[in-house]
Amino acid sequence: MAMSTENEHPVKAFGWAARDTTGHLSPFRFSRRATGEKDVTFKVLYCGICHSDLHNIKNEWGMTSYPVVPGHEIVGMVTEIGTKVRKFKVGDKVGVGCMVGSCRSCANCKEDLENYCPKMILTYGAKYYDGTITHGGYSDIMVSDEHFVIKIPDNLPLDGSAPLLCAGITVYSPLKYYRLDKAGMHLGVVGLGGLGHMAVKFAKAMGLKVTVISTSPNKKKEAMDHLGADAFLVSRNTEEMELAMGTMDGIIDTVSAVHALLPVISLLKTNGKLVMVGAPEKPLELLAFPLLMGRKMVGGSCIGGIKETQEMIDFAAKHNIVADIELIPMDYVNTAMERLSKADVKYRFVIDIVNSLKPS
Amino acid sequence: MAKSPDQEHPCKAFGWAARDKSGLLSPLCFSRRENGDEDVTIKILFCGVCHSDLHVAKNEWGFTNYPVVPGHEMVGTVMKVGSDVKKFKVGERVGVGVIVGSCKKCESCQQDLENYCPQTIFTYNSHYTDGTKTYGGYSDMIVVDERYVLRFPDNLPSEGGAPLLCAGITVYSPMKYYGMTEPGKHLGVAGLGGLGHVAVKMGKAFGLKVTVISSSPKKETEAIERLGADSFLVTSDPAKMKAALGTMDYIIDTVSAVHPLLPLLSLLKLNGKLVTVGLPDKPLELPIFPLVLGRKLVGGSDIGGMKETQEMLDFCAKHGITADVEVIRMDYINTAMERLAKSDVRYRFVIDVASSLSQ
To answer: In this predicted model, what pLDDT tens digit does every residue of A273-323 receive, in sequence order?
Structure first.
């Protein structure tokens, strides 16, 4: 007989899970494995709410198996380490992002690209090496292989650094890979949510000129006064968009809804690069002429490897970059999910696990 | 009152033109400008038939200005040079490709990327700096600014070399720009026509493993035995396509009809690059998940600048790369266009203009 989630591992754990496609989250008892020789166990302090969590709990991508404890922007304090752990000690502030395992031997893993390993194990909703399902950070404790744990530098506030573990690396990685990280370049950022606002902050720290492209005119003041964007385009304003045609070296597109690519591609200079980090589930229309006539490209990117995630966190620490968050108690999470689906958050909810997650 | 084509300019010229969207070509008397200080007058010997000529003759892209004399893969001999011309002398063998003018001042022009200048003047169906229409190489002679004329290497034959002026540079440029030249890497070439067969030859010259991806199984023997491809993948064979998933570093997509991109994206490895050089007249569907999950990209490329076109010709001369051609007489052109529409050519028609174009 299969063990219940409470009994499959020796260490009791508590969190909130979704049990069906309504996505409604509620208290959930489960268990974590004992700290293995290469494992780091930590008490979860904060966990960011990523839009992927919402997609997952409602099974919008068709791959969810319930019950699911979401959360892959997890920050906490180490309580126990395995005998072979070298990089961390008890008391360290650490984080875990979207992955907790990979094959460690393929070409991608060897090049620090665990995120592209065909056997990569997601932090929640995936099958671990021992066959059990992984549970994420809307919970009190986490146990993770040392390799997938990130050190959080002392000067970063923990609550604001949680979203870096997914939103942060998701935009940092393509800025580097597609070489959109040179001072003086002009970067467009489509969509001003969790990903978008991080892209603005990182790009400004790299010395780029940044233009935000958004459907919401009411985000302009914040974008420019608070986030430091140099310009703001309302995508439905055809005149503004036309004036900006051919002005951008690159664009990070964070929008995961289906949307028109042509107006975005038109903003690029010759040799311009459009990078998709949001993933609409239906194909988008691509016109060949504008792509060819300007030698432009459309590329994608998906989080980043562990080495690069650590590099990103260290970069954020150096430049004092954290996410703009709304800290919420655990029992607000269902309301937060409703608001998130309407993009009603500036710009990431973070669950105050340490102060509000209590076993019922 | 607007002047007729044969009276616009002082030098009489003769060619074949399409006059409506039937695309049927027939003789046209027109005229060329006087040879200016920076110009070179060229007697046209051969002109390749590019698929773009067919698209424009039939107004498939919606911007044809009839009558149109197509042809942008021409080889000829210099008859006259202007007083400021430095690079060419009378009697030399030269080529003219897809562009005959640009602004010469913008960032693109200054970087030898005249093909990306916003004011590029195309060899045919464009307007020149004097406001008159440009006419292409299905004609007896042409007058071109020196900057847009290519020196034809001695050991490159005219018939086989003419198509390099469009087909050749169209695949060479993205192979260089997108870094598809690392020996040992695996290149896929989608579509085996004028562009595709040159891409195979260049890919082999760069030391790549080359797989042709095609919907026509009957092209396999040719692709492997004659063109030197290492393997051949039929897109309608699900087992073979599955076995080839995630095996290619890059793909040059030369197909000009609308076609699904997902199967091609699936053939790419992580960080793979799909470069499209064909110009379908309707939008393609771009699935985003494969791009995101595999950090893949889809890029475009459009011919090349003059400096790079010369570099490409020299590269082809060095490696003995020419197009595989079927030489035709001018009056065969309409039949050739019909056959081209059905991809019934191995792999480029080239018009023997000098021997067959007569009034």
So the answer is: 999 999 888 899 999 989 999 999 999 999 999 999 999 999 999 999 999
**Phi-psi domain of A184 (left: phi exceeds 0; alpha: psi -120 through 50; beta: other):** left
Interface of A with B in 282-311 (CB under 8 A): 283-302
B300 touches chain A (CB under 8 A): yes
The pair phi, psi for residue A263, each rounded to 5°, is -60, -30
pLDDT beyond 90 at A32: yes
* Residue B220: its H or E element: helix B220-221
Q: Two tokens at B195?
A: 């562009």
Is B217 part of the contact surface with chain A (CB cutoff 8 Å)?
no
CA atoms in the 13 A half-sphere facing the CB of B355: 9
Please list the alpha-helical segments (H only) found in chain A: 51-57, 107-110, 158-161, 167-177, 194-205, 220-221, 238-243, 262-266, 288-293, 306-318, 333-341, 353-356
Nearest to B288 among A270, A276, A293 (CB): A276
Nearest CA in chain B to A300: B292
Cα four-point dihedral sign A76, A82, A88, A90: positive
* % of chain B exceeding 70 in pLDDT: 99
Structure tokens at B293: 């999950």
Q: What tokens were used for A127?
A: 């099958």
Q: Do B286 and A299 touch (CB under 8 A)?
A: no
Three-state secondary structure call for residue B263: helix
pTM across the whole model: 0.93
The Cα–Cα gap between B189 and B171 comes to 10
Closest CA to B276 of A261, A180, A286: A286
B74, B165 contact by CB (below 8 A)? yes
Question: Which residues 238-277 of A have a C-beta within 8 angstroms of B?
Answer: 261, 270, 273, 276-277
Q: Identify which of A245, A280, A116, A295 has the alpha carbon closest to the alpha carbon of residue B287.
A: A280
Nearest chain B CA: its distance from A116 CA (Å): 7
pLDDT tens digits, B159-218: 999 999 999 999 999 999 999 999 999 999 999 999 999 999 999 999 999 999 999 899
Q: Are B51 and B256 in contact (CB under 8 A)?
A: yes
Inter-chain touch B283–A285, beta carbons under 8 Å: yes
